[in-house]
Each structure stands twice: as C-alpha cells, then as structure tokens.
Amino acid sequence: MAEFQIVALPGDGIGPEIVQQAIRVLEAVGEKWGHRFTFTSYLVGGVAIDKLGIPIEEATLEACKKSDAVLLGAVGGPKWDQVDPAIRPEKALFALRKGLGLFANLRPVKLIEALAPASTLKPEVIAGVDIMLVRELTGGLYFGEPRSRQKTATGEEAIDTLSYTTEEIERLIRRGFELARTRRKKVTSVDKANVIATSQLWRDVAEQVAKDFPDVQLEHMLVDNCAMQLVRRPTQFDVVVTENLFGDILSDEAAMLTGSIGMLPSASLGAGKAAMYEPIHGSAPDIAGEDKANPLATILSIAMMLRLSFDLPKEARAVEMAVEKVLAQGYRTGDLYGENCQVVGTTKMGDLVIEALN
Predict the structure, then answer these.
(1) What is the pLDDT of residues 142-170, one digit of tens each?
(2) pTM (2 decimals)?
(3) Is 351 tagged catalytic?
(4) Cα–Cα distance for residue pair 67/352, rounded to 1 Å
C-alpha cells in the first residue's frame, strides 16, 4: 500500500467546500487502488488573519515542506480588503511559493468536449484546444524590491520593481521545454521584448535553453499578440512559458476557452519534494456556504497531484475520465449551466464524480 501525506489548506470563501470534495475523491481513489492518503488541515488566508492575526503561520509552512503534496482551496475576499497590506490574505500565497520554492506554475487548458457550448467562442475556434501554460511564480513585479507608495507635491507616487535573473528565467523555460517533449514539441515564449529589459533577457535565455532541445520548436510572441491569438486561434499553442504577471493574466483569459474559470486546475512545482495544487479561480465569497461552487477544478487539480507528485498516472487519468463522464451526462454546476443540462450543487457533483470513478 502506497502512503502519502497531504497538507490541506482550505482557505476562505468556497475553499473549504471544494477542498472537501477533492479529498472525498482522493479517498475514493485510495479505496479503489489500495493507496492511503492522510490529510492534515491548517488555516491560511483571511480565516487565519481572523483567528491568528497573520495569513499563515511558520508551523504551517514547515508542515507543507514535510508533506508529499499541498492542496489549497482559495484565499481572500472583500472582508479583508482594508487590512494592513503587510498581512493581506494573498500574502499566504506568496509565502507558500517562496517558502516551498515553487517557481513553476502549470495550468493546463484543455477543452472537454461536453463543455464546448459553454465557451463564448465559436466551436470551430476552440475544437481541439490543449495548452499547457507555464507561469513563473516567484519573481517579477509581485516580488520585486524596492516597492513603495509615498506622497508627492501633486498627489502620490507608487513604485513596483520588475526584476529577473538568468537563473530564474532558465529554470522556468527549461521546465517548459521538458514538458513540450512529452507533448507536441512546441514552446511559445511570451514576453514584451520590444520595450522591457527583463523581457529582452528572457528572450535571450530562451534562445540559449532551446539549444539543448533541438527536437522542440521555439517561437517568441509578444504578450499583447498572445492575448489576441488565444481567442483568435488557440489551437496553435502547445506549451506557453511566460513571466509572473503575464502568466497571471493570460491564464485567466485562457480559462474562458474551456467555458468557465471553474474548470481550470493548476500545479505549482519547484526543486523540492512538496508541490502545491489548487484551482485557479478565487474564493467567490458571494456563494460561499450555499452548495453552489464548482469543485471540478479542484478535483482536476488532485488528478495533477496523482500524476506529478505521486507518479500514479492510471489513477490520475481515471479521475479525469470520471469528470468527463459526469459532464457528458449533462450534469453542471451553475457556472456551466446550458440547455438540456441538470444543475447540481457542490456536494452532488462530488458524489457524481465518485460514482463515475467507481
């Protein structure tokens, strides 16, 4: 029997509801294939601020470092918009990424055929979409120093610093090329090299890394053009690698190719053992506790966990196929509702995936 230690960080809003369903699916996987998953939960985000005064405790970080994988729900919400910026709920995410050395965020964007009508794009545009977006996660504007905000004679001035090193860029782009070798052997490196110095370095490093992967095609694309091409002809993309801010924006845009941001999982990987898995959507506090949240992105995130952290590809594919089967049967949460579909709640959707799995 294989045993795995998982730290669960439900977080805020709908986080506890969707994490609960993912845990139920993992437990069903364990029962079916003879694995044992042990879960330990900790507070992060706004709930941690309310109870502990900070968004994440050092003990939580240490537990994550010792685990086999981390499952995160969502953090933040309007309730904490006015707290000290130094302890905003999102600081928990930055602490986890830095503390665990999670520099590569993998966001697969793959259209499930049954959801094609849910997309706002024409069926012929999105048919066959299968993109792996690889976003740098620990550098760029989100972490650059100095950053400041101060009064001036005419109002205020705010400063953020965009900084990248060769090492930060190289390890991320190399991960993208390695992934491309297992897919369709094409990497699109996204930058703004016509105006930004860090992007010029990014492009130079990409060219150097490409020499080690002669079997993989490299193309460069400016970020504004990439944003347009994602909705114009998304099937041209295989693996997309880009820096932190660009990746944050482009991955949310790409999510809509699949019909809903509630369908996109993610994995955050680094050089160490512990990786973190989470849906890319937010905490949706407006529907928290109402059994309306879509748990499928979180369930698909644990499929990534099974494949990438636990080396259980058969079990991972079984979870993905269970999700596809349930959607093909016409079941939807409210965010995906369309004609001839049956709306179900968060818990019922979890039930249906487990039934399909078994």
Answers:
(1) 989 999 999 999 999 999 999 999 999 99
(2) 0.91
(3) no
(4) 29
